[in-house]
Amino acid sequence: MYRAFVKLLIVAMSAAIPLQLQAQSGEEGRYVRKAEKVHKRVITIDTHNDTALNFNNPDAARTVSKGQVTFSKMQEGGLDAAFFAIYIGQGPRDEASCKEANFYVADQLLRLRSYVEKNNTARIVYDAEDIRSNKRAGRISVILAIENGYPFGKDISQVERFYRYGVRAVTLCHNFNNDICDASMDSVAEHGGLSLFGYKVVEEMNRLGIIIDVSHASSQTLEDVLETSKLPVMASHSGVYSIKNHKRNLKDDEIRAIAARGGLIQVATGRYFLSDKPKSEVTVKDIADHIDYVKSLVGIKHVGIGTDFDGGGGVVGMETAAKMKNLTIELLKRGYTKRELRFFWGENLLRLLRAHSE
């Protein structure tokens, strides 16, 4: 009798395990379906990647297929638009070196334009309506950007020159000071924030409608920019200092100051901005923690995503642009509404673009 009871118990437990797994699978499937609907309906924008150099200069080490972003991966991940930055590291600041940097960036922009124009699935865009039009047509939107104002040298006319190339956002500096401003990672406060030339650059970017990107800028540079700029600014790929103590991350008062002037804090996905945990343990949840923090501090209308893919970005669960929906799934699990996701994924950035085209 006892043996019969044990047999029945084992059979019952065996039957229950698949049902439990099915229940978990069903719950996960519900979030997946909701995320699919979100990405079909809302405009989704990534404000920073370094993929252009893969497109422009494929070789054995740096190829399109090996990169974290391709147009097909963006389509798979439900990512409608991205800022494709032409990155240039900081070099010597003599006249000859600045001219060489200028030529390099101009050449890379032309190469990127050519690459996009040969591809039927993507178009270069210049304003919010272009992005909306591409979404309706099922096309990827490419926004041209420069990471590091180094190629401007000390020639203010270069700002408009690159605007005419199609550039709509510029990261003022990279890891080291340039002729525009001090950088957050440099050990020397050379200008005490913006240089005299830097103030002119901010004014000229405002006049033309180029988005000022303050990621990489020092705290004093950020303060100077916010006091000078008549238009809202963007930190295109930064993290929260209160979560991860890193010079590139933004302190609470800096986040508040950017938001108070209508700007955006776009959370980066580089492990070093997110957490002290080993790389294998940093996941989409860590990105969401930074997003939650910014949302709680200044509201959903001032936060978005700037992956820094192909420049150090990516975590477990969101290794490439093909897995962008996993972030939406995580945010849905945390109770984000469709309205909040609409602002987070695209409407905030579209508002910024409209402010720069009025």
Please describe the topology of this protein.
Elements: H1 2-41, E1 45-49, H2 52-56, H3 71-77, E2 81-87, H4 95-117, E3 122-124, H5 128-137, E4 140-147, H6 157-164, E5 167-171, H7 196-208, E6 211-213, H8 219-228, E7 234-238, H9 252-260, E8 264-267, H10 271-274, H11 284-298, E9 303-305, H12 325-333, H13 338-357
Parallel strand pairs: 1-2, 2-4, 3-4, 4-5, 5-6, 7-8, 8-9
Helix pairs in contact: 1-12, 11-12
Task: Characterise the protein shown here.
- This protein is an alpha/beta fold and 358 residues long.
- It has a single domain, classed as Metal-dependent hydrolases (TIM Barrel, Alpha-Beta Barrel), CATH 3.20.20.
- Helices cover 48% and strands 12% of the residues.
- It contains 13 helices and 9 strands.
- The strands form 2 sheets. Strands 1, 2, 3, 4, 5 and 6 form a 6-stranded parallel beta sheet that branches. Strands 7-8-9 form a 3-stranded parallel beta sheet, with helices on both faces.
- Helix 5 (128-137) links the parallel strand 3 and strand 4.
- Mean pLDDT is 93; it is low at 4-24.
What is the overall pLDDT average? 93
The top level CATH class name: Alpha Beta
Order of helices and strands: HEHHEHEHEHEHEHEHEHHEHH
Distance between the termini: 84 Å
- Rg computed from alpha carbons, rounded to a whole number of angstroms: 22 Å
CATH topology: TIM Barrel
Low-pLDDT regions: 4-24
How many structurally independent domains? Answer: 1
Computed structural class: alpha/beta
Say how many strands there are: 9
Helix content: 40-55%
Fraction of residues in β-strands: 5-15%
Largest sheet: 6 strands, parallel
Q: What is the overall silhouette?
A: globular
Number of discrete helical segments: 13
Query: Superfamily at the CATH H level?
Result: Metal-dependent hydrolases
Judging by the overall fold, what is the CATH architecture?
A: Alpha-Beta Barrel
